[in-house]
Design a protein that fits this description.
- The chain is mainly alpha-helical.
- Helix content is about 30%, strand content about 5%.
- The chain has a two-stranded antiparallel ribbon with strand order 1-2.
- Helix 2 packs across helix 3.
- The two termini are about 30 Å apart.
């Protein structure tokens, strides 16, 4: 007996876009999302290249109508925003 897969939606947030359409357009335009670290203060800022998402946690709280005293971590915020 084979089991099927149902795709009910899709979402993405990345260094080149905040939704499916923005990411698609950026890929078509060959936009690069990898750069030196600029959003956080770290000793590694000149040592490694990363793909940073520009939206701050505070901006996500407002966008998602979450109270500022919530306990969402960065990964959870990114997942909820992508969904």
């Amino acid at each position: 007996m084979s089991k099927g897969v149902a795709i009910t939606g899709m979402g993405i947030i990345s260094a080149i876009g905040n939704n499916v359409a923005e990411n698609y357009d950026a890929l078509i335009q060959e936009k690069k999302g990898i750069s030196r670290i600029s959003k956080i203060d770290t000793i590694h800022k000149d040592a490694i290249m990363v793909g940073e998402i520009d939206t701050t946690n505070e901006q996500f709280f407002k966008q998602l109508n979450l109270p500022e005293d919530n306990n969402y971590g960065r990964s959870a915020l990114l997942g909820v925003a992508a969904a």
